Amino acid sequence: MKTIDLRSDTVTRPTTAMQAAMLAAPLGDDVFGDDPTVNLLQDSLAERLGFEAGLFCPTGTQSNLIALMTHCQRGDEYIVGQEAHCYKWEAGGAAVLGSIQPQPLDNARDGSIPLERIAAAIKPDDVHPHAPAGAGEHHRRQAAAAGLCGRGGGPGPWARLAVPSGRGALF
Fold first, then answer.
1. CB neighbour class for 61 (10 Å; exposed up to 12, middle 13-18, buried from 19)
2. Same domain for 12 and 49?
C-alpha cells in the first residue's frame, strides 16, 4: 500500500481517485451554509464527538487562532510551550490578530509542559483594567494551549490531568 503524506496541504499529492472524487463532489457555497460536503463533515464529526455543532477549518493555523480567540479576550494571555506550533510557526497571529499575549514555557522532552510549571506561570488576577474604559472589568484570564508539539499520539493521560486543573485555575 502506498503511503499518502497528509501532514500539510503543501506536500499532499492527491491520487487519481482523490482527484476524481473532488471533481464529482456536490458543490455549494459554505458562506451561505449550502455546501453539502462541508455540512456533512461538520455534522458527522459533531455527532461522533458528542458536540452540538462542528466548524470546518481548512488549516491548523486557523483552528488554533479560533480556539485562542474563543477562550481569550483582547489583553489576555495564554500559556504555551516554546515548541508549540501556534507560538513558534504562526507569525504571532494570536498577538497580532487577537491581541492575546503568549506566555511561553519550556517543553519537556515528550513535548508536554509539566503541570507544576503551568501552575507556577499563572498570574494572580490583575487589578488594572484592560477592558475598554468604563467597562469596570479587572482580570487577567489565562488559557493553556496544550499539545505535544507534533510528537505523535495526542496528549492522552496528560490531558486528563490538565483539564480538571485548567477548568479551576486556568480559565
1. middle
2. yes
Q: Which of 56, 77, 97 is the last residue of a domain?
A: 56
What order of strands is seen across the sheet that includes strand 101-105?
A: 101-105, 77-81, 142-145
How confident is the model over 24-46, as pLDDT tens digits?
A: 999 999 889 999 999 999 999 99
pLDDT of residue 58: 85
> Are the beta carbons of 161 and 125 closer than 8 angstroms?
no
What is the extent of the structural domain holding 115?
Answer: 60-170
Same domain, 72 and 134: yes
Say if residue 107 is in the same domain as residue 141.
Answer: yes
Classify 74 in phi/psi space as left (phi over 0), alpha (psi -120 to 50) or beta: beta
Q: Residue 39 is which amino acid?
A: N
DSSP-derived secondary structure letter, 106: P
Three-state DSSP state, 155: coil
The pTM for the full model equals 0.68
